[in-house]
Structures are given as C-alpha cells and as structure tokens.
Amino acid sequence: MGAWVRRKATGAWHGPLVGCAAVMGVLALVSLVGLVVDGREVLGQGVWLKPFKFAVSLGLYAATLAWMIGQAGRWRRTLWWLGTVTVAGFVTPEIASITLQAARGVRSHFNFETGFDQTVFMVMGGAAYLGWLLTFGMGILLVAQRRVDRAMSWAIPLGLAISLAGMSIGYLMTAPTPDQAHGLAAGLRLTTIGAHSVGAPDGGPGMPVTGWETGAGDLRVAHFVGLHALQVIPLLAIGLRLLSRRFTLLAGTVTRTLLVVVAAAGYAGLIALTLWQARRGQALIHPDALTLQAAAGLAGLVTAAAVLVLVTARARARRSASGRLARSEERGGDRHGRSERVAGAGERRVRV
C-alpha cells in the first residue's frame, strides 16, 4: 500500500482530484440539460442552476489543487492523502447534497423546512468546514515547497490565502438575519435560517447565470471572487512568465514577483470592496457614489503600484545596460593598451 501511494503521489497530477474535476464537468453538462428540460424553479431560478454553478466552481477547485499537488517536491504522500480526503469528505458530500435537493425541487441552503432538509444542510455545512481545514492544511505544505520561479512561489500562497478568506465569507450567510433572530428569540419554528441577500429576502430578481441579486446586497459576489483567487493569482504568474519571452521588461523575476504581489493585493481589495458593498444592502450592478469612489481609489492604487514596479524595472535595466557597456569599454581599452605595449616592444627589438 505504501509503495502504491508513493507512486500515486509522485505523478504529474493528483489522480482523485483530476477524476473529481472530470465528474464535475459531466455534472455541469447534465445540469445544463436539466435547465432546458426541467421547468421547475426554486426562489425564482431553475432548480438545476445551483448544481451547475457549484459543479463548475468545484471542478476548477479540484483541477487547480490537482496541479498544485503535482508540482510539490516535499510531503507528497501527505498531500496525496489530504487531496483524496478533500474529494471524499468535502467535494462529494457538498455536491451530492446540492444535486439531491435540486432533484427533489427544494432549496439546499438554509433549508430547515423538514428534519431531512435540515440534516442535508448540516451535512453541507460540515463538509464546508472540513474543506476549509483541508485547504488550509494543503496550503501550509504547498507554501513550503521549493520553486524555481520566484513569482509562482508567491502566487500560490497568496492565492491560497485569499481563497481561504473567500471561503470564510460563506459562513456569514449561515447566520440568522435580524428578522430570523427575532423569530428564534420568540420561540418560533423557522423554515429558513440564514441568507445570502442583505436588505431583502432571498429570491428577488437576479442576474443571468450567476443569479446574484439585482435589488439587494448579495454576499455570494465576494464569496465567489475570493474562492477563485486560487486560480487567478497563479494564472497571472504563468501569464507574466509567458509574456517575459516577448517583453524584456518582464524578464526579471523580481519584477514579475512584485507585479504578482500588487495584483494579489488588488484582488484582496476587490473582495473587501464587494463584501462591503453587499453588507450595505447594495446590489453589485447598482453601486452608489461611495462605492464608485472606493472602486476608483482601489484601481488607482493598483495601477500606480504596477506602473512604479515597471518604471523601476526599466531604470534597473538601463543601469545594468550602462554598467555592461562601461565594463565592455574598459575591457576594450585594456586590450588596446596591451596591443600598443606589445607593438612597442617589437619595434625596440627590431631596432636592436
């Protein structure tokens, strides 16, 4: 068994996570078909929209972790087992619960209507907690890896940290709303505890595909943006490395690393901005003047920081080029001096 695990762990990609990502892809396609042929709705949206969204999101999560574990040089066996437990203990019960409730035509989240519905939601909540802990554990081991690309050595831990913060936003949705808290305090039996909307009940008008509220704040926006830092930040590092082949300004690892750090800071700021907007009961597509000012300030800071990094890189490149030229001229002068001395010595020998 130990040898089998070692063979699995040293493969290019983590097999169970790759298989999980493939299954999520199939489920996403099945859910799309369900949206077409099944006219049932939950809170004004097709019952198969949520399985579709979660299949896509969890598929990306699984594929990214499979790749990251495949790049590991240390603690491969531990990472292999953590990845496998992630499939069995987090992704499988989470997506199975969501798909089951969709097939039944009822809500999966915040549903306390029956004992069974409450149990399903509790299973989802336990799986989410386990998923957070497993991702954190894998993140610690992945951060400690040795990497040739310095920019990627920053991108992976930053992406993991921001993603964990995005996952944590989901816990804000499980808390009772003020109205629900009053009902619970009065001893009422509630069929719904928790919400993703702020300022209005769940189920209002929503955006296409995402279903995010258009008439109230929606915590799912910041949750979604945060979760996918796991893909966005490492992909940025890969993109910068590819661009460095064409643009010499990006050839320096310090420059690419600083740009990754700037982008990660801006991405974290975007999560904070969308969370702040939602907590004020404001829909993503209806920002007020204060939100727009904050967004402009964030964009300005990120742009200024990126420009500063590039300007500094250009100045560093010019100083390096000037230094090389000066050294070349100095070597050339030395060679010329040696040639003149040799020639003078030859003339003296001829005269003698």
Describe the structure.
Strand 1 and strand 2 form a beta hairpin. This protein has helices at residues 2-9, 15-37, 49-70, 76-104, 115-143, 150-174, 178-185, 220-227, 229-243, 253-279, 289-351, and strands at 41-42, 45-46, 197-198, 217-218. Helix 6 runs antiparallel to helix 9 (229-243). With 352 residues, the chain is mainly α. The strands form two sheets. The protein has a two-stranded antiparallel sheet with strand order 1-2. Strands 3-4 form a two-stranded antiparallel sheet. Mean pLDDT is 89; it is low at 1-11. The protein contains eleven helices and four strands. Helices cover 73% and strands 2% of the residues. The chain is globular. The termini are far apart.
Search tags:
11 helices; 352 residues; disordered N terminus; 73% helix
